[in-house]
């Protein structure tokens, strides 16, 4: 990048006295918080921060900004003047640390170099000034070791091996037992490693050390580990890191010195108290590296009460100032406490909820801010059962963590066996290469689902999440043989049908045998089995209950459920659903009814077709009566039949084999031959884009009108029983208003007939799914015939991107994520720029035509935390998701409504 393309910023370097905690974009989290602590008058070693803008210029162009060197020199001069000594001077050297510091905390992912300024000459001056020769040479060997590994790219094991040899020669086990003479020899050995591995001497010029260390920190932004961490944490890749140059303070000056990490509350539980670790006579990396055992922070009161009392006061100051759990790094140098870092601390999901409510009770934050301190992802973690961390396990594989939770059961390899064994009281795990709609009964019966193929949006994953079932998909190292009813794991061991296995849907891990499971009290609360305020109520449940109440008071978006039967509907209602946003009627036609649908599709005559419809009508009506009863008084959006046609037809290969075998044996096969001819006639190369949805209703006379009649008669029956059914009829896969108009005209006629026959006035709204780009682009026209839109973002994502959801995750999504093309799968979180633009445009166009048009979403995105925020911003009225994701959607809807008032707490 040429010089004139550098960002127009006033400067690239800020002294700690110049910044504040709100400048994280520019100074990074560490730099902004060092500046904030400096402003608070806390004991922070003087220093300065090189901004993220300088890093971005460097990463884009391969060279530092032209003005950077002069700015660093000016700030270094000011630091030297303040400290009364110069960087690396011979008699009394100023030493500095060079540390990374991105906007969002990335602990351990990027680089740090301590003790910069030491050389063969200045180490002597440091020893004289400190009155401790051992300390000086220990600091020098640390510099060479860190510089060699971090800046020069030398394998860190080489330095560790040399250190171990030095300890062996002295017959000691810890580095603190090495004397000054031993450390001098170690410095010589380290310098030889540098010369051999880097092809150059360790730099003796302190400014060269600092400049090279700054570049190394910039470069560490793009290391593999840093990129992987950012992908996992959903941190943007274009932020860059700041670099903090801080005057050194030393915790390795003897027993009256040390270093530690402190938390203002327990990050695991959220409880208040003294939490952290302390290590005497050590520098900061010793605590992190674990090379020596730390002592609990509470022991510091006995070791150095003055410093302990001061630290407790500072911790209280910081928590009250940041109004949150703070994570603190500190050093004590000969009895003087120094603060090296503070940040809003990472915490477990349970701690997040407890701390948020505690801070509300303390008056530090209000409900609006409390909602910004928790997330739907954290709530989801709390809802799923989990394995006991202390259990002994035998891991045999790992796949994609498709649906969280912990499941244990006997391995079964087909749905029939899963149902049969489950009815006998057995707990089973359904193991398949991949699942399809025929496996639904087995999936319902199973404790969890394990497949060797597929990704997070495969059939198994989507259905499992909808049911709240644990699921691990795409465990490719497991060889599943459904015919022989067994699975071979790495190493050749065979898992036979009936062998117990355990799967962890939160990590994707697969275990042999039974791993003990710990249930979630949060789900017991949502199910109504645990009541906040009761004597035995879990403290965490109390916190979750309060946060959900906050969210429900604040949110604008209503939350409905995707549910296909009364059982799911009742569960959804317990979880707080305000209606059903998607009832998929095709799920009602699987199992015993599939043959009736098959006969309907393949019917040659009107009589055959009417016979099938007549048989289906009472079954459908019963479905809807049960659903309306479960959701009495709440809206129920019923999607008319929308399967790809092949899901209701016999497999063409199996049918061909049956016909061929019958012919070879000269057995009667007229029916099979007729069926095969029909299947050939209806066979589609791409059934997802073929005869389905509204097209199926238009091509097969009577299919949709049968369903509408069943809905209308069920509603009339419930009204007669003093119920309050609120049915909404949704037409799927509409691409043009003419399709909707034809179906609507037929539906209105059927509804009128039912009203006349029953004497019941029915109010049945008729709308459509917006799941094709053309529907979104012509939404203004379609709204003339639709009373509501529900965005089917699963299919809309497929058709906008040109992806087949069942195929692409397994084939190239991993590569796309690794290359940064995707930050996250567009099937997991809505693609705001592409799919989202169509949603916004369709919503606006629809409401221009029909201002009272109701807008919702019923794709998988309806329960995704980030997507819920988008739907709030886009002005939708509701989201719909699987029952187990309803609490997540409720919480995120509340957060979305208050987001502008909250602060950034990643």
From TrEMBL:
<feature type="domain" description="PEP-utilising enzyme C-terminal">
    <location>
        <begin position="542"/>
        <end position="894"/>
    </location>
</feature>
<dbReference type="InterPro" id="IPR040442">
    <property type="entry name" value="Pyrv_kinase-like_dom_sf"/>
</dbReference>
<keyword id="KW-0067">ATP-binding</keyword>
<comment type="similarity">
    <text>Belongs to the PEP-utilizing enzyme family.</text>
</comment>
<keyword id="KW-0460">Magnesium</keyword>
<dbReference type="GO" id="GO:0050242">
    <property type="term" value="F:pyruvate, phosphate dikinase activity"/>
</dbReference>
<keyword id="KW-0670">Pyruvate</keyword>
<keyword id="KW-0808">Transferase</keyword>
<dbReference type="InterPro" id="IPR002192">
    <property type="entry name" value="PPDK_AMP/ATP-bd"/>
</dbReference>
<dbReference type="InterPro" id="IPR010121">
    <property type="entry name" value="Pyruvate_phosphate_dikinase"/>
</dbReference>
<dbReference type="Pfam" id="PF01326">
    <property type="entry name" value="PPDK_N"/>
</dbReference>
<feature type="domain" description="Pyruvate phosphate dikinase AMP/ATP-binding">
    <location>
        <begin position="68"/>
        <end position="293"/>
    </location>
</feature>
<dbReference type="InterPro" id="IPR036637">
    <property type="entry name" value="Phosphohistidine_dom_sf"/>
</dbReference>
<feature type="domain" description="PEP-utilising enzyme mobile">
    <location>
        <begin position="426"/>
        <end position="508"/>
    </location>
</feature>
<dbReference type="InterPro" id="IPR018274">
    <property type="entry name" value="PEP_util_AS"/>
</dbReference>
<keyword id="KW-0418">Kinase</keyword>
<dbReference type="InterPro" id="IPR015813">
    <property type="entry name" value="Pyrv/PenolPyrv_kinase-like_dom"/>
</dbReference>
<keyword id="KW-0479">Metal-binding</keyword>
<feature type="domain" description="Pyruvate phosphate dikinase AMP/ATP-binding">
    <location>
        <begin position="301"/>
        <end position="350"/>
    </location>
</feature>
<dbReference type="Pfam" id="PF02896">
    <property type="entry name" value="PEP-utilizers_C"/>
</dbReference>
<dbReference type="InterPro" id="IPR008279">
    <property type="entry name" value="PEP-util_enz_mobile_dom"/>
</dbReference>
<dbReference type="InterPro" id="IPR013815">
    <property type="entry name" value="ATP_grasp_subdomain_1"/>
</dbReference>
<protein>
    <recommendedName>
        <fullName>Pyruvate, phosphate dikinase</fullName>
        <ecNumber>2.7.9.1</ecNumber>
    </recommendedName>
</protein>
<keyword id="KW-0547">Nucleotide-binding</keyword>
<dbReference type="Pfam" id="PF00391">
    <property type="entry name" value="PEP-utilizers"/>
</dbReference>
<dbReference type="InterPro" id="IPR000121">
    <property type="entry name" value="PEP_util_C"/>
</dbReference>
